[in-house]
Amino acid sequence: MTTSFPSTHYACPCSDLTSAPPPPSSKRASIQPTSFQVNEEQAFNPHSPRADYTLYPLDHLLFCDECDEIRCPRCWTEEVLYWYCPHCLFEVPSSAVKGDGNRCSRSCYDCPSCTSPLAVTQISQRDEALLRPSDAAGGNETYVLQCHYCDWSTLEINVHFNKPTKITEQLVKQRKSRTSGSKENVSSEKAAITHDDAFANLTNFYEDQLNETVEPQNAYPGSPYSSPANLARIMNIYGGLSHNALKKTREKPQPMREARGHAEGQTSFSANDSDTGIIQRLQSFGWDATTTSEQCLSAPVNNDTRFTDDLWPSATRLRTRRAKRCKSCRHIIARQEPKVGSMRYKIRLLAMNYIPRLSIRPLNPTVTTTNPAFHLRPDMPEQEKLQPHQTKQYVLTIRNPLFETVKITLATPTTTPGKVASRVTILCPSFTVGPAGEVWDEALSASTQSASSDGGRKAAMASLTGSSESSDRQPEAGKIWEKTRNSTSVVVEIIPGSLRPPPSIVPKTEEELADAELKEDDDVLEVPVYVRAEWETEVKPGETVQGRKEVGGMAGEKVRKEVGYWVALGIGRIAG
Amino acid sequence: MTSKAAALTTRQSSTAIPPVKPRCKIHSTAIIADKAQITGSHIVEIGENVIIHPHARIKAEHGNVFIGRGCQIAEKAVVGAGEPTGSSDAADMVIGEGVSIETSAVVEAQKVGDYTTLEVKSSVGRGAVVGKWCKVAPMCEVREQEVLEDYTVVFGDGQKGRRVDGVLRDRKEVRDAKLKGKAMEMEVLKGLIPDSQMKWTMG
């Protein structure tokens, strides 16, 4: 899944793939589960195809503090904060968007050939040599729209402007004069009518027709029966319509007719239409000169164009700035400031500030894995592969972002789910992690245990000679490896399984063989770990406590909170 | 990042082995920055008013290089034929007048026409022939042996990446405007870059 190992991906509990295994009798506060076994069937399988859509890196996840749950992109809704034009950065009120559409109305246009923004450029039409000094002041300045990227300009379609503002008006005028000019030139009645005009004529005609020929909807007004057919049947039994209504129905309504002629919007095909001109053009300029569907759909004015030479610049589409809301409780979990272009967030509830963060690294690193940001060469060195059946020890570090001490319980299936079964053992599955706090609290507090942070000669000597104490430490079952102020590390033993299944006596069928074949990324060793964090927090005055809490929250009271989620730890690829 | 790596390796190689000094014929009005590099054993001819920025590289290792007047070769651009692939003989490179080769461009063409602009990080393959008044947009490439007509614009990717700029071809005032822009740029750069062509012409 990822190219660089080790990696950590968090699964949002929203999917049924990752719903937590039922915690044993957690309702009874007196029974504290120290560890619980995870069955193979309940374990989250990071190799399943659906898991790709559930696992996210931590920076993609938000957290809802009302529901106390992780929110992934599938669990939040986005709502529009404001609309703005990406080029002039002008905020357009949503009422204007509803009325005028989702395009910028302030002279921002996109190049039809490369879709980058067009800039208003001044060109001088007259030759420099002919300018007299008196003419210099009142120069005949003309303006065009020029693309900086592909050098397209409106001169290609012979459009130029007299002034640099109100481009929209001038463009519309030029377009109208162009199309109406071409219509007058053609004398025959069968001349092509422009798309816009035809549409307008057609809508008007059919609206009129509908008004004239609408069938009497309500022959029996004020009746309690909803179905007109039933009502008609019943009334027939009683003798039919009232006198007035009978008179009206005698006049047969004109059946609705279709459009005829240009005035009503109808265009007819005649065999001697000028398709030959189009075909010749196509033959001489080739496929590349025709418009793609994106170009045709870029603006209504371009919907009929066949050739790129006829494309008109399209107004820039507006973009939206959106806020994210939790789907279940409608609480806003991320929202930016309403000022256009400001990247600051008013509200931003990141998961990394609420849930314990895991990271894994080898205990005895043989290859130093460097941060990809520091690589000078573009090609990455080959990452070492894991040898099957060799026990490797890893240090799993849990960092706590909360201001309270958190009790962590880890659970993982003994063998990893998927085609390759590797054995995983967490030496100490249940422990506490200290609270995060101010940086200088660490300096003042005496709770840190690592010798290296201790000032003094002993520590300096130890670090110089390669401290004997830390390198000879052996990981022990049930013991924490390392504990700092707000993080705790434990050792995990992993024995990678072999890629090839053991030879079996019973010959496998074709299907079983096909199933056993390794597909892409099946050799990646990913360990699913279920993390459960519990902590106590004070209820702030004014806050309501919802969710799984049994004890109703009153201001100042301690309330137990917990959060649980699956994490897929990517260790590496297995060789073989 | 690739160019940084390339620069690192080339700097190392240049200190390890003293570079062969090319036979240079540089016009007196040309301005060649001190940190520019001209390497190779073939002839390098540089016309008048050419400006070569620092860290530009002209490689005459596999063929001669002729640079027309009024050209501009920006930083980290690499001008010069690369390794010959196959049985093609040594390729001379002729760069026309007023050509702007922007930063990090890689030019291995056989011929670049007058007043063409090769934008930032563009690349022109070996043996290509680029017409005059062309423009290769940033990060676009001209394939090997490709021939570009005059007034072509290369942009975007894939199929729709070529366009003949009719405006440039038909309207002289637009071309003049561009020329004026180039001339103004040269004026500014003349004052900014100190000349050290003596380094290449002496000895």
Automatic annotation (TrEMBL), chain A:
It comes from the Eukaryota. This is Uncharacterized protein.
TrEMBL record, chain B:
It comes from the Eukaryota. This is Uncharacterized protein.
